[in-house]
C-alpha cells in the first residue's frame, strides 16, 4: 500500500477516535502523596464535652416531609439522663419542651453503646432560628438551628454536599473548610460516614469519635443522610448479621413520612427542592420494596411546587475512574429511564474517592442486542456528580480510565466538598472546592438550568 495512503488512513482513524472519545477535562492538579491517616483517639476534635454524662454526638436532620420538624439525636455515655429538649426562638429563654420518643442502646461484638436519644420537634415555623438545650444542671449544652423557608418554587436554598468523609486529617480539613465559610444551610451526605469498619471487628468506638468530630456542623444544621457500603457493618464471623445496625440505630431519618418501609430510602421537600435518597446496598430489582416505592415516588414530585429534583445515593452510575468502575451499573439499568422521564436535575453519589462531573447523558436506549452501548447527550437527563472525596482513611482514587469518555465533563483526584446553591425555579449554581491546606479553592463550577422549567 502506498505510504501516503497509509498516512491518510491513520489520520482518519485518529480523527474518528477523537470523535468517539472526546471527553472533558482531567484536572492536571496533583495533590501530594501523603497517606490519609485517621486522627488518634486523643485528638481535640474527638474530645467529649465536660461534665458527667454530658450530651454528646449531637446531630439533627429534617423530621418530616415538608421541613417543619427536626429530629434531634444525641448520646449520653453513662446513663439515660434527661429525655427533654428545651427550645425557643430567644437565646437562653425556654419557650417549649419536647420529650424523646426513643432512647436506645445497642451491642456490637464486644462493644455496648451509650444511650442514644432521638427526639422530634414538631410544628416549627419556617425560616426561623431556634435555640435548643440538652442535658440539665451543670452539663447543660446549648445549640441552635434555622428551619428552611416554606416549600415553594422560588425559595432559594444552599446545600453543602459531601461524601465518604471518615475521620482523617484530610476529613478535618474538609469539614473545617465547609464550616468556616458558612455557605451551606444543610448538607446532602452521599454515604460512608465513620469508616469504623476499617478496624478489627468494626471498632464501634470510631462511631463515637465521628459523632463528636462532626458536632460542630451536625448540631447546627440538618444533614440529609444516605447510607454507603461502610455502613453495612456485616461480620457474620462474630455473629453480627444485621446490616446497617449501628447506622440505623444512631442516625434516624423521616422515612415513614414519604411512605417508605425502610430508613435506607426516603424523600423530603426542602425549600424548592424535592430530595430522593436511595440505597445502593439494598435490593432494588423489580418488585422489591425500594423499586415499588421509587416507582410511586418520582411522579409525586410536583415541579410547580418543588422544581429542583435531586437524587442522593452512594454508588455512582457514571464513573470514569478505575476504582469501583461500573459498580452502579445494575441500579442504573433499573432506574435511569425513570430519571430521564421525570427530568431529574442532579444526582449526587460517593463511593469513588475523587470528584467527577458528567455531561447530561443517558444510556437508556441500550439493550444487550442492539449495540447502542455508548451514552448519548440527552437534555432531559441529570448531571451526575461523584463527590466521594471527603478525606477518608482509604485515600484518594487517582487512577483514571483512559481516554476520558464523552460523558465525563471534569474529574480530579483531590479531597474536598461542594456547594449547590438554588437561586430560583430556573437556575442553580454548583461549585466544587478542592482542599488546599488551610484554604478551599474552586476546582469546578457550572450553572444548572432546571430540567422542568428550562428543559433545553
From TrEMBL:
Residues 1-23 form the signal peptide. Its EC number is 3.1.3.2. Residues 54-150 form the Fibronectin type-III domain. Keywords: Glycoprotein, Hydrolase, Iron, Metal-binding, Signal, Zinc. This is Purple acid phosphatase. PANTHER family: ACID PHOSPHATASE RELATED (PTHR22953), PURPLE ACID PHOSPHATASE 11-RELATED (PTHR22953:SF120). It comes from the Eukaryota. One of its GO terms (molecular function) is acid phosphatase activity. SUPFAM superfamilies: Metallo-dependent phosphatases (SSF56300), Purple acid phosphatase, N-terminal domain (SSF49363). Belongs to the metallophosphoesterase superfamily. Purple acid phosphatase family. It comes from Cinnamomum micranthum f. kanehirae. It is an enzyme of class 3 (hydrolase). It catalyses: a phosphate monoester + H2O = an alcohol + phosphate. It holds the Pfam family Metallophos.
